[in-house]
What does this fold into?
Amino acid sequence: MWIAENWKDYSLLDTSDGQRLEKWGEYVLVRPDPQVIWNNAKRHPLWNKADAVYNRSSSGGGQWNDHTLPESWLIHYGDMTLKIKPMGFKHTGVFPEQAVNWDWLREKIQKAGRFVSVLNLFAYTGGATVAAAKEGAAVCHVDAAKGMVAAAKENCLLSGLEKAPVRYIVDDCMKFVERELRRGSKYDAIIMDPPSYGRGPGGELWKLENCVDELVGKCVMLLSNNPLFFLLNSYTTGLSPSTMGYLLGNHTRKLRGKITADEVGLYSKQTGMVLGCGAAARWECD
It folds into this structure.
């Protein structure tokens, strides 16, 4: 498993009974997690002292209760500064397990020793965009949600990247890729973190299993003649790392490189266990 273990401002304190106990900077949150199917004793003292708890509703969605938090606050990951803001559907604006992918892609860009152009699709609040831009890459950041693109721009500004060559695009990712193909655009690296389902800005319905194979194939066609990497991440239940690796490998088989795939995860400090948080597949040039 690829484990995000270099955090100082975030920690997974404990897990039990479908919940995570987490520390984000100076604030402690309790959030639901469907992967936590065990019901061990909640021994960590902060379970009863959380600053906010997210409770699911029986009718769908949910809300933050015991809310003693500021509207937002900042955390740091190395030289990256990211804004945390508790939102609906339990999100905070950052997926901490993705730090292991940020470290990997930064190392790939740094070792390339050349100008690198990156396409970041379904780019959310821009953790990967900040990571790539910190290494001097030019990034095209694409997400269908206007608010998420605005948050990504803010994270770049907070991280001192106001002059970095980052383009912020609000668009349906499939339609954007198809236009880039018609334009003849090329990228040295592609990052993709598609949701299980959702809608584009024009109401376009997205379901991962129905669309991801076609989208990955089209994205591979956008790779330059000197490609560096392709990172594919998924949180969709049932799509294993091996499945994602096979999918990516099927489309990159004519390229010179290698495929690796694994779970991404976080250490639980109370128990020492590792919580699996998703699947990732990486193609990288030889």
